[in-house]
Design goal:
The protein is of the alpha/beta class. Among the domains are: about 45-195 and about 225-460, Kinesin motor domain (Kinesin), CATH 3.40.850.10; about 505-635; about 800-840, Immunoglobulin-like, CATH 2.60.40.4330. The termini are far apart. Bound molecules: adenosine-5'-triphosphate. It is found in: Cytoplasm, Cytoskeleton.
């Protein structure tokens, strides 16, 4: 188990954030005019001058090194003793002047070593060599096998310094945006394996180098002491890029994939920290100086091949060799890099070997060479212009003169180093001069430019380290712990290797830790004490391990038991799963069936719906038919009623006719009987003569009366009644006056009542009359209803003086006609009574169902219920039919005849 960091982490700002804050602070202070915040420290460009030895001993020198900082330029004429020379001697001062005898080591120590120290401390630096062709720029920067230049020495001293603090390969990985990301140990291991596979497969990958190249080894070995100032708690990795700027195009010299690809021009971009970089450049992680030199040589080779293809010269291009140092703090155990990208610090040392700066007129170049020279001059002129503008801007800062825009982008080489001049870092320049007289003029130009450059101020880079609040010296403690473990292992404590690193224990042992070095006596004491503690720890660990083993055995047996149970459960589970599968299949099949049935149910439901709709339609039709049938039935019933009433009327009429005939025959018989009686009386009477005439007359009259009455009845009731009414009275009067005892009973006038006196009615009507149901009803205040008039008492027994015969008839149209025959009951002298009709009322009730054959009466405003009331007797004769008259007459006759019969008996 690895312990976690005990010290709480502080909020850490990345270098970029720190730089941004610093720039912001500076901007605000400048804009506010505040003088509280001190201005950023600036250093001038460090310009060194190196004078190479004269190419040949016979050459005339025009440069004299006066002291370590000053040279004197002497015109060649003057050097030859020409007293009239126009040009004067010029004296130039530099930071340091290396005379011809100066060694590569001296140059490195003075110029490049501080830059490597900057690199280790996380600062950026730029070093470029400037001078005419053949002045020793490449010699100074690269050197040869025997005289190693600045670049290999930088790499050598760098690797010597960081050798114990290097990460494994691919822990830091370029993100192709000029930044880096941190891979975990596992990912880094995977990358390493892939690289190895590629190497064995012989495919694309890093260089395939020989393990020991004596030439390289000699070039790499400088035997310089490591530099101071390294952070021992950090882990480091070195990356290199090598590009060439030729004809204002940038080429990647380390790009894999053949010369054609290497000759593809790259573009320059700005990263998140405002640093310029070549986009897509090959960035190689190197772990030793030999590896770096080997890559450099590969680059050189590609450069030469490219120049052959392009028919160019090596001195016509600018070479940029970048050394990038990536560092990040280790974790609290000092073991691995903290997996936080923000903690990474990247510093860069750019070593630039510029092309020769001679004029084309002197070199007498033409064509291609002239164009090259033009480009070179242009880029160098741009460099010169940029530095001049920078100097002018810095000199006029705070004044009223507006600052000039520095034309970095006019040339690729200035564009690439824009951030050094504009931002921060350290810039150094070595002006290489060939002291021969022929180069006097160019040297003068170069030296003038170099002098001017010294006046350019560059902001000093401040070291930017991510402070995570971790204990310093943790890596040293880790190392001490591992030394102690190794020692114990050598002494036979094999368990010591199993101990986890405990840096806290190391801290507790030494009072001055971590000030002392690993090879100091204090460190040895610490290791001794550490070993003792670790021995105790190992013993305790052993005990604990034994206990753990016992527990493990127990646990194992328990585990085996559980495993067995698990196995049986698994078997059971498998069988259950099989059952479950079957059940699931069955359920799926059932579900499918259900789906099928559901769909068929849907179909049936649809059909049912259709059928129900059809049933509804048919029911509606049936109801219509039923209604039609009912109507027809009603009509039929109506017709039936109509015919029934007709039939009843007909039957009634026949019956009445029959009765009339019967009555007629009886009358005839009676008349004959009376005649016979009279005749017998006559025959038997003594006073035949006296009695003969009146009797015969009386009989004749009676006979005539009967006959005329019957005739009248045959002709019509109304006529008979009218006749009766008109004629009967005088005839009765005659009887009452002359023959009251034996003739027809005369009306007793004394019993006649006035109309104003109380009337008592005999209402003679059928047994079940048709109800009138009308509003207007005959008003009879005091009445007695009878249905038959069979006896005299029916007429006289109720003290009635009014008689009303109610007759109801239905005609063929279904109308009901009700007739009220009204008369006075007049007592006769013989004790009988006679009815004298004096009024007829006719009530006609129209059928509500009109007959299809019947024409509506014109006057039907009152619903045809009551058409006429109180018609007179004279009008009645015109309105009533023969049949009804017969009926009334026959019924009236009953009363009359009854009286007659009685009278006869009396
Ligand atoms: N300080 C020196 N000591 C000894 N030899 C030197 C020195 N400087 C240069 N030379 C020699 O001079 C020759 C030309 O030097 P070099 O190629 O470095 O010049 P250069 O300025 O790089 O030329 P170019 O601009 O063409 O690249 C080389 O053979 C080199 O060995």
């Amino acid at each position: 188990m690895k312990s976690t960091a005990r010290t709480p982490m502080r909020v850490v700002r990345t270098p970029h954030q720190q730089r941004e804050m610093r720039l912001r602070t500076q901007t605000s202070s400048e804009s506010n005019g505040s003088e509280n915040i001190p201005p950023r420290p600036k250093d001038p460009v460090s310009v060194f001058c190196r004078v190479r030895p004269l190419p040949s001993e016979g050459d005339l020198s025009c440069i004299t090194v006066k002291n370590s900082t000053t040279i004197v330029l002497t015109p060649p004429e003057q050097a030859l003793g020409n007293k009239h020379c126009v040009l004067k001697e010029t004296q130039c001062i530099f930071k340091h002047v290396f005379e011809a005898r100066a060694t590569q080591q001296e140059v490195f120590t003075k110029v490049a070593q501080p830059l490597v120290e900057n690199l280790i401390r996380g600062r950026n630096s730029l070093l470029f060599t400037y001078g005419v062709t053949g002045s020793g720029k490449t010699f100074t920067m690269t050197g040869d096998i025997r005289h190693r230049g600045i670049m290999p020495r930088c790499l050598d001293v760098l690797f010597r310094t960081i050798s114990d603090y290097q990460t494994k390969k691919y822990v830091f990985k370029p993100d192709r945006l000029n930044g880096f990301e941190i891979l975990s140990e596992a990912d880094a291991l995977l990358e390493r394996q892939q690289e190895m596979n590629q190497r064995f497969a012989g495919g694309r990958g890093p260089l395939k180098r020989k393990d020991s190249d004596p030439e390289l080894a000699s070039q790499a070995s400088c035997e310089m002491p490591p530099l101071q100032g390294i952070d021992e708690d950090n882990m480091y990795a070195v990356f290199i890029t090598y590009v060439e700027v030729y004809n204002n195009s940038v080429y990647d010299l380390l790009e894999d994939g053949g010369i054609q690809k290497s000759l593809q021009s790259k573009i320059i971009r700005e990263d998140a920290n405002h640093n310029m970089y070549v986009h897509g450049v090959t960035e190689v992680e190197i772990k030793s100086v030999e590896e770096a030199i080997e890559y450099f040589q590969i680059g050189q080779k590609r450069k030469r091949m490219g120049h052959t293809v392009l028919n160019a010269e090596s001195s016509r291009s600018h070479s940029v060799f970048n050394i990038r140092l990536v560092q990040a703090p280790t974790d609290c155990q000092g073991e691995n890099v903290v997996q936080d990208k923000r903690t990474i610090t990247v510093s860069q040392l750019s070593l630039v070997d510029l092309a020769g700066s001679e004029r084309s007129s002197r070199t007498k170049n033409t064509g291609m060479r002239l164009r090259e020279a033009g480009n070179i001059n242009n880029s160098l002129m741009t460099l010169r212009t940029c530095l001049e503008y920078l100097r002018e801007n810095q000199l006029s800062a705070g004044g009223n003169v507006p600052s000039k825009k520095v034309p970095y982008r006019d040339a690729k080489i200035t564009h690439l180093f824009k951030n050094y001049f504009d931002g921060e870092g350290q810039v150094s320049m070595i002006v290489c001069v060939n002291p021969r007289a022929e180069d006097f003029e160019e040297n003068t130009q170069v030296i003038k430019f170099a002098e001017m450059t010294q006046e350019v101020q560059i902001a000093r880079a401040t070291p930017m380290k991510a402070d995570l609040g971790l204990t310093p010296g943790r890596r040293k403690a880790n190392k001490l712990f591992k030394i102690a473990v190794n020692n114990l292992n050598d002494l036979g404590y094999t368990d010591a290797q199993k101990l986890d690193v405990d840096v806290g224990l190391v801290y507790t042992l030494g009072p001055n830790f971590p000030e002392y070095n690993l090879d100091s006596p204090e460190a040895e004491d610490t290791i001794e004490m550490l070993m003792q503690y670790l021995v105790q720890r190992i013993e305790k660990r052993k005990l604990l391990c034994e206990d753990l083993d016992a527990r493990l055995d127990n646990f194992r047996s328990l585990l085996m038991q559980r495993e067995k149970e698990n196995l049986s459960l698994r078997t059971e589970l498998a069988s259950l799963k099989a059952v479950y599968k079957q059940e699931r299949d069955r359920s799926l099949a059932l579900e499918n069936k259900i789906r099928v049935h559901e769909s068929s149910i849907d179909v049936l439901n649809n059909k049912l719906g259709n059928r129900e709709r059809q049933i509804d339609d048919l029911t509606r039709k049936l109801r219509d038919q039923q209604n039609l049938l009912n109507k027809k039935e009603q009509e039929k019933e109506h017709q039936k009623k109509k015919f029934d009433s007709k039939l009843a009327v007909e039957v009634d009429r026949r019956d009445r006719l029959h009765e009339l005939k019967h009555a007629k025959l009886q009358n005839k018989i009676r008349v004959k009987d009376e005649k016979l009686k009279l005749l017998s009386n006559i025959i038997t009477s003594d006073d035949l003569a006296l009695a003969k005439l009146p009797r015969s007359r009386s009989i004749d009259n009676l006979t005539e009366d009967k006959d005329s009455q019957q005739a009248a009845q045959q002709q019509g009731v109304s006529g008979s009644i009218r006749t009766g009414t008109a004629t009967a009275t005088p005839r009765t009067d005659v009887y009452s006056a002359a023959r009251v005892p034996r003739g027809m009973a005369a009306a007793n006038r004394r019993h006649r009542r006035s109309r104003s006196a109380g009337e008592k009615w005999i209402e003679h009507r059928a047994q079940n009359p048709v109800p009138l149901g009308t509003v207007l009803q005959p008003y009879l205040k005091n009445r007695k209803s009878i249905t038959k008039l069979t006896d005299m008492k029916d007429l006289t027994g109720h003290n009635a003086n009014k008689y009303m015969l109610v007759s109801q008839e239905a005609d063929t149209d279904g109308d009901v006609e009700t007739k009220l025959f009204k008369g006075n009951i007049v007592p006769t002298c013989g004790g009988g009574a006679q009815v004298i009709f004096d009024d007829v009322e006719c009530l006609k009730q129209k059928s509500p169902v009109p007959s299809p054959n019947r024409k509506r009466p014109i006057n039907t405003d009152n619903g045809g219920i009551l058409s006429n009331i109180g018609t007179t007797v004279s009008a009645l004769s015109a309105l009533t039919s023969l049949n009804s008259a017969n009926d009334v007459a026959s019924r009236c006759n009953v009363g009359i005849e009854g009286h007659t019969v009685k009278r006869t008996k009396v």
